[in-house]
Amino acid sequence: MMKKLKTILFIFVIMSALRPANAEQTYIIKKLIGKGKNYQTPYYVFESGKTGHVVLLEGGIHGDELAGTEALLDILHRIRVNTGKLIIFPEMNKPACDQKKRFINIDINKIFPGKKDAKPYEYPLANEIFKMVGREMVEYVVTTHESKHLHQLKNSNSFGQTIIYGVKPIPSYAKYWIKTLNEKLTKKEKFTLHYYPIPTSSTEIFVETYKLKGGFCVETWRKFNWNRRVEMHKYVLLTFLDAIGFDYTLANQEK
Ligand SMILES: [Zn+2]
């Protein structure tokens, strides 16, 4: 899959460079977290060259929750950004994703902002991701997850089919986002907003440190089949971009 991805990205970069000077210019830049380390993992930056929102869509923070990663790779192949900047980061914890395990030594979502030069590798990985969010001047972040348990109101510790936020107040666009998202889903699939703060979670740390305009974790329920979960993650991510007014176009398929 990565080889195919590289080829497509290469072609896209060349095509962008060959476009006439008056056309909109979009650049896609592949960057690395953990360059040369055993946890090296790429993220992709779409630069429109025009002012607009800066959005980070990320997945694979837990290596056995990969429907979101698959959705991110599909969006990566097809999206063009017209204003602002979009960052797609499909495999945050690559060693865990490669082994399809939640984590290798320690859950990185419980140790943000991490620590430089510490062991095990999850500490410097978390720290590099944390610094990247500041360096890229991210304004919004959505992280994809998957849950074994369908959310039930009487059990706040169940997450399937929820969109979680951990910093109040909830941004004003969130309700519109959930409404347009749920219009695409069956009754059983509908997402609810769920307030569940975890102090060391990447999302909460990003929102509080960098004063983001929004930070959310998306949890699909693993009882739905793989293709449907991938589809649902795509809906979640694209309706999020729509809800905040991010200007993009998608190739090959209707939104
Ligand atoms: Zn997770």
Q: Please state the CA-atom Rg, rounded to the nearest Å.
A: 17 Å
* Chain oligomer state: single chain
Largest sheet composition: 8 strands, mixed
With strands numbered from the N-terminus, the spatial order across the biggest sheet is 1-2-5-3-6-9-7-8
Extract low-pLDDT stretches. 14-23
Describe, in plain words, how this protein is organized in 3D.
The structure is a single chain. The protein is α/β, with parallel strands linked by helices. Helix content is 33%, strand content 21%. It contains seven helices and ten strands. The chain has helices at 2-18, 67-78, 94-98, 122-135, 174-182, 202-210, 226-243; strands at 27-33, 41-47, 54-58, 79-81, 85-89, 140-147, 162-165, 192-195, 214-221, 248-250. Strands 1-2-5-3-6-9-7-8 form an eight-stranded mixed sheet, sandwiched between helices. Helix 2 (67-78) crosses helix 7 (226-243), helix 4 packs parallel to helix 6 and helix 5 (174-182) crosses helix 7 (226-243). The longest helix has 18 residues, at 226-243. The two termini are 23 Å apart. Bound molecules: zinc ion (ZN). The site of zinc ion (ZN) has 3 residues, from loops.
